[in-house]
Amino acid sequence: MTIRNSVETARASVSNIESYISKKWPGFFDEIATTLSKPLWRMGKNDPHILGKERIGKLLLQYSIPAIIGMTITSIYNIIDSIFIGHGVGPMAIAGLAISFPLMNLVVAFCTLVSAGGSTLASIRLGQKDMKGATEILSHTLMLCITNSLFFGILSFIFLDDILTFFGASADTLPYARSFMQVILLGTPITYTMIGLNNVMRATGYPKKAMLTSMVTVVANIILAPIFIFHFEWGMRGAATATVISQLIGMVWVVSHFTKKDSTVHFEGNIWKMKPRIVESIFAIGMSPFLMNVCACAIVIIINNSLQNYGGDMAIGAYGIINRLLTLYVMIVLGLTMGMQPIVGYNFGAQKIDRVKQTLRLGIISGVVITSSGFVICEFFPHAVSALFTDSDELIDLAVGGIRLTVLMFPFVGAQIVIGNFFQSIGKAKVSIFLSLTRQLLYLLPCLLLFPNWWGLEGIWISMPVSDALAFITAVISLMIYIKKVSKQHPVVAE
């Protein structure tokens, strides 16, 4: 009865969102149409200071839509790649790919430790009109990306089999996971440089160009993956090789941008010189998404091992399908927060608190809209979306059951992500870290340890919406506390 009521409530909320937005911001959807109608290749002259002057709704669309498109394209590539693997290699390869998710989370973790901190600081420096400081952030981001990639890539490659076995790989799935991750780890310097500098590019006023980086990378990936998987019959190794080659193309694109003198921020002077103060600041801000991905790694390890115990390799494969689907919508929301980040960071640095609040409010509503759409599709069409990945009836049935349970509280996930990234954008690292950890450690982990003992495989799926709901409540309370605190210094924040 409770689950049914939750579904009906969420369904009603989704139906009211569009009318609310249209009433609150009459020109919102028209602005989207106008933004999308502009050719992406017409960059125009960059002026980062419009972040403090232009209308918030227009800015959010201008900066978020390119990022959303880029993140969506990237996520869709991952889905298509999984489809290629599922149909070209087999259902067991889907399970092997799912086994690699924790290690991929660690790859992302060490990358975002630098890229998130570097991009946030770069936008804040621009808001303060500190061009020298923004340039220093750029060079530090590059060097830290290279350093982190070498450290993590070499260490993980040496102990790869032991790591994957610990992550839940069986004798059947280990060869698939190993073939995929060996190539990915060899390409980490390329991956880190491309992602790190692309985030800085977006944060320094080039959202469309940053989006084009993702588009170029993904188009190359989609072309190369089926060639390597089907024509050359390289299987998992072919999928990974296509990914690395595509990211190499993206890296060349991004590096060339920052070598041009007409770029707002570009490489100057001795880029190899590192300042401990700047390194510490980058790591402090990037620690939140870093810990979030580390926690995600730990959680997926527990999920994979629990799935192995209660459902076997096919249950892990079902989770791989669910993860790809839900990640699509999470990535769209992250694209939204990428667009928010330079707006929030600039105006926070310029002490324009009213504009910060406006951006946050519109961002939360947009995030809820995105994840609510994911809820509707996954709740009402679970069989159709699962069948995209495999022909195995057993795998499809397991995925359908899992999808319907995991998305019950998904509409609230959008708000939770936006609020967490808001604190990161204004440099409140401790709050952002706390919110990043709440869902994973405080809520999801205990649920994963308890619920399967009572409800078996369904207990694993139920753990996710329960933790989503609790994390949302925690994020809202944290935001209310912060607003109350800031309103004493800036009365305009309080309404």
Structure notes:
Mean pLDDT is 83; it is low at 1-18 and 31-45. The protein has one domain (2-493). The two termini are 38 Å apart. It has 19 helices and no strands. It is mainly alpha-helical and 495 residues long.
Name some characteristics of this structure.
495 residues, mainly alpha
Percentage of helical residues?
A: over 70%
- Unreliable stretches, pLDDT < 50, 5 or more residues? 1-18, 31-45
User: How many strand units?
Assistant: 0
Strand coverage percent? under 5%
Give the number of domains.
1
The overall average pLDDT, rounded, is 83
Largest sheet: none
Return Rg in Å.
22 Å
What is the CA-CA span between the terminal residues?
38 Å
| Helix/strand structural class | mainly alpha
Write the layout of secondary structure elements.
Layout: H1 2-24, H2 28-37, H3 56-88, H4 91-99, H5 101-127, H6 131-158, H7 160-166, H8 174-186, H9 188-203, H10 207-231, H11 235-258, H12 276-310, H13 313-349, H14 353-380, H15 382-387, H16 393-406, H17 413-425, H18 429-455, H19 457-487
Summarize the structure.
With 495 residues, the chain is mainly α.
